[in-house]
Amino acid sequence: MIRSELIKKLETENVELKTEEIEKIVDLFFGEIIQSLADGGRVELRGFGTFSTRDRSPRKGRNPRTGASVEVPSKRVPYFKPGKEVRERLNT
Asked: Across the chain, what does the average pLDDT equal?
């Protein structure tokens, strides 16, 4: 599912809301998750899962075009751990 499909689904289930209002809600929801992760926090949605970040160490990579060795700096990457209900539903 992509963002526009999510908005259309919310529109069909909430006919009293305008498309612009639903878009604002979706943007706010995702924006808050992103901001919390950027601030070093984590987001727990009970029954769905937990978003957090993990640190990746610096490493040596390789340029696939030239084969030259390239230094890849350390960075934080997003991580999602599904909740119990999501895992059970996927595996039934």
From this structure: 96
